[in-house]
Prior knowledge:
heterodimer, A: Alpha-Beta Plaits, 2 domains, four-stranded antiparallel β-sheet, 9 helices, B: about 35% helix, globular
Amino acid sequence: MRLTQTSFVxxxxxxxxxxxxxxxxxxxxxxxxxxxxxxxxxxxxxxxxGLLRGWGSQVQVFVYLEKELAPEELDQLLKQxxxxxxxxxxxxxxxxxAWEKFKQTLGAQxxxxxxxxxxxxxxxxxxxxxxxxxxxxAAEALAQRLRGLRGVGEVEYPEEWVEKLGLLVLGIQxxxxxxxxxxxxxxxxxxxxxxxxxxxxxRDEIEIMQLVGAPAGLIKAPFVIEGMIxxxxxxxxxxxxxWLFFLFLHDRIPASFGVFAPGGGLHxxxxxxxxxxxxxxxxxxxxxxLFSLRQFLKRWSG
Amino acid sequence: xxxxxRVSKIYPPNYAALADIHLQIxxxxxxxxxxxxxAGKTTLLRLLFREEEATEGQIIVNGRNITRLNGGAVARLxxxxxxxxxxxxxxxxxxxxxxxxxxxxxVGTPRREGRKKAFHLLRELGLxxxxxxxxxxxxxxxxxxxxxxRALVNxxxxxxxxxxxxxxxxxxxxxxxxxFLRIHEQGTTVVIATHDTGLLQRFSHRVxxxxxxxxxxxxxxxxxxxxx
Lengths: 302, 228
């Protein structure tokens, strides 16, 4: 396309945006709503992932010792546990340390411990698993091995809910794509309708352009550009809406739940997620226009 | 310039709008297509600017076979033609100048140059003071002159006009025909479809007669008889 034709196309786009202002606003708004819902799923998924990562790093196996071991026995036990390939690190918690930690946890209520002996809690080992082994099954297998070691009393490992959270994240991921898919198709049809309206509003102009030999690209380009603008505008509005929504949640969630602390708190979509959302809007706008144009301008498709 | 070999156009289920047409129009000729309504005049013109595709036969325009063309080639063909219609086909929201300049701009003429050319053409066609008027503010004859200016703005090799005087009174029709003659005098091939036999008598040129889709006559006046 020549430069003069490019300027012609942009003048037509501006004209259409002016003449069909509310139609374009309505379409961008619909796209914004669709992308807001999709982005919402993206945001929830991102945060649950973060949460899972945070908690995953905390998946530990606790080994309570039967009695205070002699230093050589403790060294030997630690050496043995550290030699397991699925163990990342081992920390020994003495009876005294356990007592102090417990008191700290109770905080203002620590008074209830008065009169109790400081060595009432058993010494323990806190065993962190290596990344790929942070699952319930791996923890269970390790626990079996640990139970057979000398000096080991009880062994505890993560409950099933950590895995259930993993399944929830997976479910959200799928819901995002399934619901997103439906919304995507619906939005394509809405964009298609806008293009149809714009097309009908300019039917005479298009017919005349065809008769004087305007290339198909010159006739199609303004509609496609309008679709792109609608898509990117819709995505930007959706992103802004999500950010406001995020700020609203951010101020409330940490106060009521402490659950996000391990993942480092709530976080907004990263640059990649934001770019994906804008690109999706762009693709929806462009795709909707092209889809509609194909139906109207079949004569040029050959 | 234009050659048709055994051209037919059949509409479903089995209506032959044109049947077995042989026709040759030389460069620089002025030809009337005449015949009653439904004779096939408009269909023949539509085949020439590829609004329709021939069912059978071959059509050559300016040395190029246009019988089967893709979208891009149709656009390129039309850039070489000037089309004029009975109903003018002007955009009511654009001024006369903008209507003419639009045709120049869509084929890649720079905006300023297109407007300059449009202005000159409108002035030549007697619309100097009307270039800023929108079509609803112009008379039928003036609108047709704007349409003719638009047809000429890309320097066509062939002008095709379908009943260009159909919506005009006798005086305006006469004036419009004189414009076509001026275009022809400048070397452009002109083909005009009309059912107005009065025009044919007043402007003596080659007449191709069509009836029920068939070519039934082709008369060329002697040199001395031609109007100018």
